[in-house]
């Protein structure tokens, strides 16, 4: 049991480090917070909440994975290497695709509610 608690602590430390060191993670967290507030304001249904939670979890996890790739490659190849740069760009592209897809899902959920509110 003690080992399980320690591993949980290590994971929390990893999250704390990514938040501290990565501006994009802070941006994703701020967007997530805003979406959760909007979900509460617009009283979205449980299916919409499932999609929102999945999107948030995927984007935040992808950002962490991207950070791992970047830090690992920086440690293993501190000198400039165009192939390393390309790998890092691809990892960032995965986050971008998830973030854009999540934005579209958010628009599908929230745009009709916003339009109803304004009309």
UniProtKB/TrEMBL annotation:
Note on cofactor: Mn(2+), Zn(2+), Cd(2+) and Co(2+) support activity to lesser extents.
Entry keyword set: ATP-binding, Cell membrane, Kinase, Lipid biosynthesis, Lipid metabolism, Magnesium, Membrane, Metal-binding, Nucleotide-binding, Phospholipid biosynthesis, Phospholipid metabolism, Transferase, Transmembrane, Transmembrane helix
Gene3D superfamilies: 1.10.287.3610
Compartments in which it is found: Cell membrane
Coiled-coil spans in chain: none
Active site per UniProt: 63 (proton acceptor)
MF terms (GO), sorted A to Z: ATP binding; kinase activity; metal ion binding
Gene Ontology BP, a term: phospholipid biosynthetic process
One of the record's GO cellular component terms: plasma membrane
Binding site for a divalent metal cation: 22, 70
Binding-site residues for substrate, renumbered to this chain: 63
Transmembrane regions: 25-44, 50-69, 90-111
Ligand binding (ATP): 10, 22, 70, 88-89
Record's bilayer topology term: Multi-pass membrane protein
CDD domains per record: UDPK_IM_like
Cofactor(s) in the UniProt record: Mg(2+)
Family to which this protein belongs: Belongs to the bacterial diacylglycerol kinase family.
PANTHER family listed in its UniProt record: DIACYLGLYCEROL KINASE
Identification of the protein by name: Diacylglycerol kinase family protein
Organism: Profundicola chukchiensis
């Amino acid at each position: 049991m003690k080992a399980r608690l320690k591993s949980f602590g290590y994971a929390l430390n990893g999250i704390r480090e990514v938040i501290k060191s990565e501006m994009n993670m802070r941006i994703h967290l701020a967007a997530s917070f805003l979406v959760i507030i909007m979900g509460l304001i617009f009283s979205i249904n449980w299916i919409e909440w499932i999609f929102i939670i999945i999107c948030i979890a995927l984007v935040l996890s992808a950002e962490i994975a991207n950070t791992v790739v970047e830090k690992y490659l920086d440690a293993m190849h501190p000198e400039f290497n165009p192939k390393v740069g390309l790998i890092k760009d691809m990892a960032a592209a995965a986050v971008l695709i998830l973030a854009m897809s999540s934005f579209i899902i958010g628009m599908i959920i929230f745009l009709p509610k916003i339009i109803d509110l304004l009309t």
